[in-house]
Hints:
Elements: H1 2-9, E1 23-28, E2 32-35, E3 40-46, E4 53-56, E5 70-74, E6 77-79, E7 84-88, E8 96-99, E9 104-110, E10 123-129, E11 132-133, E12 142-143, E13 149-156, E14 175-178, H2 182-208, H3 213-219, H4 224-236, E15 244-247, E16 259-268, E17 271-279, H5 304-317, H6 333-337, H7 340-354
Parallel strand pairs: 2-13, 14-15, 15-17
Antiparallel strand pairs: 1-3, 3-9, 4-8, 5-6, 5-10, 7-16, 10-13, 11-12, 16-17
Amino acid sequence: MFRASVLLSFVSFALALSASDLQVSVKAVSSSVRSIEDIILTAVVTNPTESEVRITSADNILDDANTESFAVSKDGERVVFAGVRMTANLELDTNWVTLPAGASLAVNHTVSQLYDFESHGTGKFTFKPSASFVSDITKVPVTVDVESVTVEVTEDVTFRPLFTRDEVPAGARQSTVNCGDGNRAQILRDSLADARARAGGAAYDIRANPNSVAWNRYFGGANHNDVWWRFDMIAGDLASSGVRQIYCNQDPAGICNRASAYVLLYLSGGAITSSDVYICDSFYNFPNTRDVCGWDINNLGYTKAGVMLHELSHATAATTDVYYCGPVQSLSPAEKFNNADNYQCMAHHIYRQYNC
Ligand SMILES: *[C@@H]1O[C@H](CO)[C@@H](O)[C@H](O)[C@H]1NC(C)=O
């Protein structure tokens, strides 16, 4: 029944992926290691069906960049992710893989530079794989059930930063555009100013219209004050949200062939102390905020300011990535609160409603 109605409603006639269309397993090469450097986790994704499937390999267990492929915990406490928060550009083929019928794909993960193990000391760490896959960008990702893996680390949990951090220039504001290309620097400064204004508009509306359509779509069930605070941190560029540089023309993680932008968080005692933003070439192709006025309010897309706001929500609140304004409306209240695009989508909705 469900499938038949899906078929009728899509011109592409692509069958929606379901959780049973994929099998995922994760194994630790060794379940007890001396150092976090010796942890190797092997993920295998299998297509057990009789037709090929095309799925995203971004922000999940198939992603071999330094992104968050696992939720890590120790004694029930979350171990903070300290790697790359990538905003994948799903329009690029580099973020997709095709698995032929019956085929498997294996990816090895090393994790020593990606999580703040040090704050938790030696002992047993649990790795819950991120087994969410998009096959259709108009739908929420399909999540496959996978068992967590536990690895004991007996001696060395010392934090190893992924990249050496640049000195913060004297007198730096909380968010500072750092870009030698005058043209791009101006676009980034404009996008930053606009992102802050859009966040301010959304924060204002949460207080003025706590039961608005925009609220219910993008944050329904979440706590108004908590969401307000996250928008306000971005709008006010508050010192409590850390100091960051916004770079153009730099790609230390080597992922600009797949990303629109990304964020590297730096942690001290579990708190975000800085969170530099790296803007990739494809960012500059996003439209200007004014273009939102020509869009259907029920089908909002991305803008430069919106993607900047999305990055700032990674940078200030370590948010996650389920993409596009349609699918993010189906998340649970807790997931909405923690997902970057929900902030971008609500801000665009409010702009479309009052500024056009
Ligand atoms: C993963 O690492 C293990 C241990 O080093 C190795 O035997 C295996 O071939 C690797 N697999 C892949 C897919 O790289």
